[in-house]
Amino acid sequence: MMNNDTKENLKQTTTWIRGLYMLLFGFLAGLADFVLLGVIIFQFVHKLITGETNERLHKLGQSIATYNYQILQFLTFNSEYHPYPLGAWPKGEPKSAKEVTKDN
């Protein structure tokens, strides 16, 4: 039998809304992984052909990896920051959850 605290926790709409956001971001993380795989393959082929890495692909790969990090931070309850499309698209390397919270 459920106690009153459990019943109240189950009624919290903020938790259910977060669950919906988690589903959305979980889907977007899968999509980002697919795109990142494409970047990895293109970067590898470019390196094979030219002997150098492509700077634009390098930056794109970094931003997608940072985006995935932001999503994982949110999904694991380490951050309340909502990644893109609800927040800004990341630039550069990831910030810690504490830095993201302070910036927003």
Description:
The protein is mainly alpha-helical and 104 residues long. The protein has one domain. Helices cover 70% and strands 0% of the residues. It is built from four helices and no strands. It has helices spanning 4-10, 13-50, 55-75, 97-103. The longest helix has 38 residues, at 13-50. It is elongated and about 65 Å long.
Give the CA-CA distance, first to last residue. Answer: 41 Å
Biggest sheet record: none
What's the number of extended β-strand segments?
0
> Which residue ranges are poorly predicted, with pLDDT under 50 across at least 5 consecutive positions?
none
Radius of gyration: 18 Å
Output mean pLDDT: 90
| Overall morphology | elongated
The secondary structure category is mainly alpha
Number of helices: 4
Secondary-structure element string: HHHH
Number of domains: 1
- Give the helix level as a range of percent: over 70%
Task: Please state roughly what percent of the residues sit in beta strands, choosing from under 5%, 5-15%, 15-25%, 25-35%, 35-45% or over 45%.
Answer: under 5%
Descriptive tags:
mainly alpha; 4 helices; 70% helix; 104 residues
Sequence-ordered SSE layout with sheet pairings:
Blueprint: H1 4-10, H2 13-50, H3 55-75, H4 97-103
In short:
The chain is mainly α. It has four helices and no strands. It has one domain (about 10-104).
